[in-house]
Design brief:
The complex is a heterodimer of chains A (about 190) and B (about 240). Chain A is an alpha+beta fold and about 190 residues long. In chain A, strands 1, 2, 3, 4, 5 and 6 form a six-stranded antiparallel β-sheet that branches. Chain B has a single domain, classed as Rossmann fold (3-Layer(aba) Sandwich). In chain B, the strands form three sheets. In chain B, strands 3-2-1-4-5-6-9-10 form an eight-stranded mixed β-sheet, sandwiched between helices. Classes of the chains: A alpha+beta (about 190), B alpha/beta (about 240). At the A-B interface, strand 1 and strand 2 of A face helix 3 of B. Chain B: GO terms for molecular function: oxidoreductase activity. Chain B: InterPro entries: NAD(P)-bd_dom_sf, P5C_Rdtase_cat_N, STEAP_metalloreductase. Chain B: This is NADP oxidoreductase.
Chain lengths: ~190, ~240
């Protein structure tokens, strides 16, 4: 139930057995089913969620009802609305379950306790947030500066698992293009 | 109440108290997962809930562990003597979750409590589930009280005890959904008092061959608890 989390921590820092126990006991194991919501627009995001197994995605909905996918999370990834989590403002995002998932939820209070009590956890969290920042910057650059073909090429190079686990309409939304455009671009690629 | 739906597991949902709680909260923004050792008991309960609340999100689950894994809040609606066994089954998936102890640990002949005077059913449950947030609630309201939380214009009080502020807040919302007036009695160590209070009431019900519709009402007599300080103090049991 905690295998991926343990591996993720061990990839970046080393913890004693005692620290790992303390860390693990602060997470809330939560199983969720496809189409359930981990967070809905208007609620404050008070938790960081680690995906042991499964898939989720975060998105906003514009005034016309169009969905804009911000990101996905799969086995071994974290997901949250960090804007809401850090500022305590209501979230503008929804986080929905894409495949039946096994999650480990870390409430803010427990996260703060771990930051204080386990220096290695603080370092781990810093690395995770740094990585998230880098990914976000890349994503903004790609969204602003690349053609549809380039966006798709970048996606299948950097995140090939997306194409196997995510419906095409969500991939299109993530890339900021219509499903028709994505379809055309994919046709050009295979042709 | 949060917009994002919370999931509540009721272990022992087919029993008197379990089904009263399920019916009482089915109209709220909750997903209900119902487990009972005797699953036949759940069918008619679910039918009844869907009649009263056509949009209720309520499903039977045939395993206490699975049920608790998916839940945010776990309600143990079983006698205290059954709680240890359930705690052993659900411990690994109950970490950091709110677990509500509704039990009054009474002897079979209702003469006294089975717990010693320095502890309570809720504190014992907290020992068995050391990484969960145990909250005492729904032990001072009989199953019949859920059908009629307001008697003669007066709202039934429901006492809550627990150590974590945020967990208490979530349970306050549950109690309000039922229609009771929640009163935080104190931290988990107050549970023993709440359990003894109810032992007294159970004994009175039996002695008077009563109908068991008898919620506590403190705010009516001690209005400072509801913010209106006319200086009266006391309590009563609401009667029909």
């Amino acid at each position: 139930m905690y295998q991926q989390l343990k591996e993720s921590l061990q990839e970046h820092v080393s913890l004693t057995d005692e620290q790992w126990e303390l860390c693990k006991n602060n997470f809330r194991p939560k199983r969720m089913l496809k189409r359930q919501f981990l967070l809905q627009e208007g609620d404050v995001c008070r938790q960081l969620t680690f995906v042991e197994k499964g898939a989720l995605y975060s998105y906003s909905v514009d005034s016309k009802g169009n969905q804009h996918v911000l990101r996905f999370a799969f086995d071994g990834w974290w997901i949250a609305d960090l804007q809401s989590f850090f500022t305590d403002n209501p979230s503008t995002l929804n986080i929905e379950v894409l495949e039946d998932s096994e999650l480990l939820v870390l409430d803010r209070k427990n996260h703060e306790k771990l930051l204080e009590e386990i220096p290695a956890y603080e370092r781990y969290h810093r690395i995770i947030v740094e990585n998230a920042y880098v990914a976000l910057q890349k994503r903004v650059e790609n969204a602003l500066g690349l053609t549809a073909e380039e966006k798709y090429a970048r996606l299948i190079k950097d995140n090939p698992e997306f194409m196997n686990r995510v419906p095409l309409n969500l991939v299109a939304s993530y890339l900021g293009m219509s499903p028709e455009t994505l379809s055309r671009v994919r046709g050009n690629f295979s042709g | 109440m949060p917009i994002t739906k919370q999931t509540i597991a009721i272990i022992g949902a087919g029993g008197n108290m379990g089904s009263a709680i399920a019916k009482g909260i089915a109209g709220g923004n909750y997903r209900l997962l119902l487990f009972d050792r005797d699953p036949d008991q759940l069918e008619s309960l679910i039918e009844k809930i869907q009649q009263d609340h056509p949009n209720a999100d309520v499903v039977p689950i045939d395993c206490a562990h699975e049920c608790s894994w998916e839940a945010d809040i776990i309600i143990l609606a079983v006698p205290h003597q059954a709680e240890k066994e359930i705690a052993d089954k659900i411990r690994d998936v109950a970490t950091q979750k709110i677990v509500i102890s509704i039990a009054n640990p009474v002897e079979e002949d209702f003469s006294k409590l089975t717990t010693t005077s320095d502890t309570s059913a809720a504190e014992e449950l907290q020992e068995w589930l050391p990484h969960s947030k145990v909250i005492k609630a729904f032990n001072t309201t009989f199953a019949a009280d859920f059908q009629q939380p307001i008697i003669d214009g007066k709202q039934a009080d429901a006492f809550i005890a627990g150590n974590e502020k945020e967990a208490l807040q979530s349970v306050i919302e549950l109690v309000e959904t039922v229609g009771f007036n929640p009163i935080i009695a104190g931290d988990l160590s107050v549970s023993g008092t709440l359990e003894r209070m109810q032992l007294l009431l159970i004994q009175l019900m039996i002695r008077n061959n009563d109908d068991w519709l008898a919620p506590w009402n403190v705010t009516e007599w001690a209005p400072e608890l509801s913010g209106d300080s006319t200086g009266l103090a006391g309590w009563k049991i609401l009667r029909n």
